[in-house]
Structure formats: C-alpha cells, structure tokens
Write a structure and sequence with these properties.
Layout: H1 10-16, H2 21-35, E1 44-48, H3 57-61, E2 65-70, H4 73-84, H5 88-91, E3 94-98, H6 104-107, E4 113-119, H7 129-138, E5 139-151, H8 157-161, H9 165-171, E6 176-178, E7 184-188, H10 190-199, E8 202-209, H11 213-216, H12 226-238, H13 242-245, E9 248-255
Parallel strand pairs: 1-2, 1-4, 2-3, 4-5, 5-7
Antiparallel strand pairs: 5-9, 6-7, 8-9
The chain binds S-adenosylmethionine (SAM).
S-adenosylmethionine binds at residues 6, 49-51, 54-55, 70-72, 75, 100-102, 119-121, 124.
Length: 271
C-alpha cells in the first residue's frame, strides 16, 4: 500500500462521485437516517475515515462538534478546503486529525464521543473487526455507532446490469468486487457486522439501504430533480425488500448506558 492510497482517488471521489446524483442521494439519505438516532446537538461526533467530511459537515452545520479522523492527507486537504468555505461558527465546530482509524483512541487522547461514524471504510479493510472494536471503544455509554458497508449479498447486481454475465455468476459466491473507482472493495453482511458490534457491547438498533435506483441508472446532474430522487431513495432505504437490494447498507448501534467491560482498557493499550 502506498503511504496515502487515497491521494490518487481524492479528486475523483470528492469532485466526481460526491457531486453526482448518486453521491448527493447518498449524503442526503445517510443524513436523514442518522437524524433518527442521534441525540440533539450540541453533541460530539467522531467521523472515522471521514474523508472530505461530506457526512459530518452537515452535522457541524446543525450544531454538532465534529472530529474528522482520516489517514489520508489528501482527503483531509479536501475536507479543509470545504470547511474553510463555511461560516466561522461552523468552522470552529470542526477538527481534522490525520491518523489511522485503528489509532483513533490514541489520536483523540482517549476522548469518548456521543456519536462515532464510519462510512465507506470497512470495505477497504481485509478484516473489519479491529476497526469496529475501536469504533465501539470510542463511543460513550448510551452513544451511537454508525457504519456504512458494502452489501456482500448484492454483488451480482452491478455486473449483471453491465451484461458481464460471468462476473455476475461468480459474484453470488464472491466476498469482494472492484469498486466504481477501481479499488478493491470487500463486502459485509448486516448480520456479520451486527454481531461484531454486539461482541463490542454495542446493540444494533436499526439498519437501512442507502441507494438503490440511482445505482442502476445514469442520472444527469443538470436535468434531474435531485430531491425527488432522494425522497424515493429514502423511502426505499427504510423498508424491505428494497433495502435488502441496496449495494451498501447503513447499520446503527447504541452502546449500553453502563460502563461496560471494554471501557476498562486504557486508550493506548492495543493488546
Ligand atoms: C470512501 S471514503 C469515505 C469518506 C467518508 N467516510 C464518507 O462517507 O464520505 C473512504 C475514506 O476512508 C479513509 N480510510 C480508509 N481506511 C482507513 C483507515 N484504516 N483509517 C482511517 N481512514 C481510512 C480513506 O482515506 C478515505 O478518506
């Protein structure tokens, strides 16, 4: 892995993917889903692998105190650019930290957050468990952990729609795919990540799809009514069978209000 694997992807991601109809739908739908679970602001939010802060900047605008932690200097530079364009009262609610998510406890000085986000990151890791454990240790009792991951159960859809039938057939048994930006991405299941959360004393309390129809069609930015699409996607994301077909899913858990046994571990102890 190069030092900053995301340096080469940052432009495509921030200026391309996020500003597409699908990217805007993703940000909107995830935001609406989060608001169903988050405490009212002010509250602290840690966004692990937060990239250019697309998900956490709207939270800072609402009054949350946001820490964006990412291992990519290039992605954080994009975040910094976006934060600088905000009014002063929003800017001062955002902190950027360059660090690996696995080191989040040390990098944040052992702080516990009301909300811990980790969206679109687990799919780039060979094993999600170490990072999920860190996320769960960074959240305060009663706090919320939110993860968005690639849906391992729907990997055949995209190759089938591309008429790549051999790839689609193989995808039923595959655990990963080459993502839209050419990077390898690994799929998870709701059940698998839910049990990792539970093992780390975070009780799953809801899961959603994120985008469905916009993944299956090219929608031009200039002629598409984005809110009309986003409202349809939001409704699909909330219910079966639509949410099960989404290419990514959003899982939210809550840490029990008690202190818990994982809390006994000091923040810099990685044994
Ligand atoms: C697809 S982007 C998602 C950004 C943001 N979470 C969002 O949903 O808009 C993936 C981000 O995860 C970061 N990342 C990947 N692995 C990481 C790790 N182990 N620790 C910290 N950041 C990581 C990358 O640098 C990149 O910024």
């Amino acid at each position: 892995m190069p030092d900053d694997a995301w340096a080469a992807l940052a432009d495509a991601f921030v200026d391309g993917a996020y500003s597409s109809v699908k990217g805007r739908v993703r940000t909107f739908v995830l935001h609406q889903q989060l608001l169903r679970h988050l405490p009212d602001p002010p509250a602290t939010v840690l966004d692990v692998g937060g990239g250019a802060a697309h998900q956490s900047l709207p939270l800072a605008r609402l009054g949350y105190d946001v820490t964006v932690l990412d291992q990519s200097a290039a992605m954080l530079a994009k975040a910094d650019q976006r934060v600088r364009a905000e009014p002063e009262q929003v800017r001062r609610r955002i902190r950027l930290i360059e660090a690996a998510g696995e080191q989040a406890e040390v990098a944040t000085g052992g702080e516990r957050f009301a909300v811990v986000l980790c969206h679109g990151v687990l799919m780039y890791l060979d094993d999600p468990e170490p990072l999920v454990n860190v996320l769960c240790r960074c959240v305060e009792p009663g706090g919320v952990v939110s993860v968005m991951a690639l849906n391992a159960k729907t990997l055949a859809v995209r190759p089938a729609l591309d008429h790549r039938w051999a790839d689609a057939l193989a995808a039923f048994e595959a655990g990963s795919e080459v993502g839209v930006l050419g990077a390898d991405t690994r799929g998870d299941t709701v059940e698998g990540l839910a049990s990792l959360l539970q093992l780390a004393e975070v009780e799953p309390e809801g899961w959603y799809g994120v985008w469905l129809f916009t993944d299956w069609m090219e929608l031009p930015l200039d002629t598409t009514d984005i809110m009309a699409v986003a409202n349809v996607e939001l409704q699909a994301s909330l219910r079966d069978p639509y949410r099960q077909l989404s290419r990514v899913f959003h899982l939210i858990g809550r840490r029990s209000p008690g202190p818990g046994r994982l809390r006994e571990r000091p923040p810099n102890d990685h044994s």
